[in-house]
Write a structure and sequence with these properties.
Strand content: 25-35%
Shape: globular
Helix content: 25-40%
Largest sheet: 7 strands, antiparallel
Order of helices and strands: EEEHHHEEEEEHHEHEHHEEHHEHEEEHH
Structural class: alpha+beta
Number of helices: 13
Number of strands: 16
C-alpha cells in the first residue's frame, strides 16, 4: 500500500491535563490504543489546542477548556506551564519542507493576565535553506514584539516561509461523533467539512455525491460491508435545511434520521469524516477520530479497518480505540500502535514494549489478545 507523506512526524507534550511528558512518533496511520480513562483524548486535545489557538486565539482555546488550571497537569504535583512541540513535513510544488513548531503557555508571573505565551519557536527547512523565528516572553529574537498572550505564527504566516505550516496546523480536523447531533437538521451550506461531532454529515454526503461521486460510492460500499442490508446513506434536504436518510434493500422508501440505528449512523459518520471533501481536496492535513468502532458489531471491524487504511493513503489518520476486535486482522501493523496507559494518575504513551512486540512478531498472540489480557505496555514504562 502506498502511503501519503505524513504531516506530523513527532509530537511532544508536557504537563497537559494528565500527560506529564510524552514523545510520540507519527506515521500515516496512528492508533492510540488503551482503556477508557487512560488519557487518549487528552493527547488528541493537545493537538486540537494547537489548531484552535491558531484558528482563533490562545485565549479562546484556553477558555473553551475551562481555563488554564483545567489544562495544567495537577498530579502528582501542580504545574504552572504546559508545552506542545511538533515536527512536520509539508509537500509543496518546490519540494518538501521540514521543520518544528512549538510553544510554552503558563501562568503570568506578574498576575496581569490569565496566562502568557512564555516562548514560541518555528523552524522551516527546505534543501539548504532555513527560516525561523523565536519569541521569548513576547520579544521576537532579532527585533519586534507581540502581546504576551498571543501566538506569533499567524503574523509570521504572512511571510511565505511560514504560510504552509500555519495552514497545515489549522487543517488538522478532529471528530468525536455524537449521533444525536448527526440526526439534527443543519444549514445546507457546503463547506467541504463534517463538524467535530458529525454535524453537517448530510451536506457533506450531498457534496460528495455532486463533486466526488466515486468516493461517495466508496462510502456506500463500506457501509454495505459494515451493515448488512444497507445500500447507502444520502443527504435529505428540506428547504435550506439538511440531514440524512438511509437506503436499504428491503424497503423502497428511505429511512429518515430518527429511524437509523446508532451503530449505522456512527459508522457513516466515520466514513464521511475519512473521505470528506476537505480530505479529497487536500485541504486537511490530519484527521483524528475518537473511538471509530463505537456501536460497531465485531464482525464489521474488518471493513472499518480497510476504510482507515485506505484513507491514510491520502491524509494522516489518527484514531483512539479500546477495541481489541479492530486489532485482530492479519494486515494490522503493530508499528501503527501507540499504547496509552495511566499510572498513578499520569498518562504514559509509547510504542509497544519489546516483550509485546516479540509476542506478536512470533505469532504467539495477536494484538487483540494481548489487549484483552491487559498485557500491552508502552515502551519505557516501569
Amino acid at each position: 500500500m502506498t502511503q501519503a507523506v505524513p504531516f506530523l512526524s513527532r509530537v511532544k507534550v508536557a504537563n497537559y491535563r494528565s500527560i506529564a511528558s510524552c514523545d510520540v512518533s507519527f506515521i500515516p496511520l496512528v492508533v492510540l490504543l488503551g482503556p477508557n480513562g487512560a488519557g487518549k483524548s487528552n493527547f488528541i486535545d493537545a493537538l486540537r489546542f494547537v489548531a484552535d489557538a491558531l484558528e482563533t486565539t490562545p485565549a479562546t482555546a484556553v477558555t473553551q477548556r475551562g481555563g488554564l488550571t483545567e489544562i495544567l497537569r495537577q498530579v502528582p504535583e501542580p504545574t504552572d506551564h504546559f508545552s506542545i512541540d511538533l515536527e512536520f513535513t509539508i509537500s509543496t510544488p518546490g519540494g518538501a519542507k521540514h521543520g518544528e513548531y512549538g510553544f510554552v503557555l503558563g501562568h503570568d508571573s506578574g498576575a496581569r493576565r490569565p496566562f502568557v505565551v512564555k516562548s514560541e519557536r518555528c523552524v522551516v527547512r527546505q534543501g539548504q535553506e532555513e527560516t525561523r523565528f523565536d519569541v521569548q516572553a513576547g520579544l521576537i529574537v532579532g527585533g519586534g514584539g507581540i502581546e504576551r498572550d498571543r501566538l506569533y505564527l499567524p503574523v509570521a504566516a504572512a511571510q511565505g516561509s511560514f504560510t504552509e505550516i500555519f495552514y497545515g496546523l489549522r487543517g488538522m480536523l478532529f471528530h468525536h461523533l455524537d449521533t444525536e447531533k448527526m440526526r439534527a437538521f443543519q444549514s445546507d451550506q457546503r463547506t467541504g467539512r463534517i463538524g467535530p461531532s458529525g454535524e453537517d454529515i448530510g451536506t457533506v454526503l450531498g457534496e460528495l455525491a455532486f463533486r466526488h461521486p466515486v468516493f461517495k460510492s466508496r462510502i456506500d460500499d463500506y457501509l454495505k460491508a459494515i451493515v448488512p442490508g444497507v445500500e447507502g446513506m444520502d443527504q435529505r434536504v428540506y428547504g435550506t435545511r439538511s440531514t440524512v436518510e438511509l437506503r436499504t434493500r428491503q424497503r423502497r422508501e428511505p429511512f429518515g434520521p430518527d429511524a437509523i440505528s446508532e451503530g449505522t449512523l456512527h459508522a457513516a459518520g466515520v466514513l464521511a469524516a475519512l473521505f470528506q471533501p476537505a480530505v479529497l481536496d487536500a485541504e486537511a492535513s490530519l484527521i483524528a477520530i475518537e473511538e471509530p468502532e463505537t456501536a460497531l458489531h465485531p464482525a464489521a471491524t474488518g471493513a472499518m479497518f480497510d476504510a482507515l487504511t485506505e484513507a491514510s493513503e491520502r491524509v494522516q489518520v489518527v484514531i483512539t480505540t479500546q477495541s481489541p476486535d479492530l486489532l485482530d486482522h492479519d494486515d494490522f501493523d503493530p508499528g501503527w500502535v501507540r499504547v496509552v496507559t495511566m499510572e498513578n494518575g499520569v498518562t504514559l504513551i509509547g510504542d509497544i514494549d519489546d516483550a509485546g512486540r516479540k509476542v506478536v512478531e512470533e505469532r504467539l498472540a495477536t494484538l487483540g489478545e494481548l489487549m484483552r489480557g491487559r498485557q500491552l505496555r508502552p515502551r519505557g514504562a516501569e
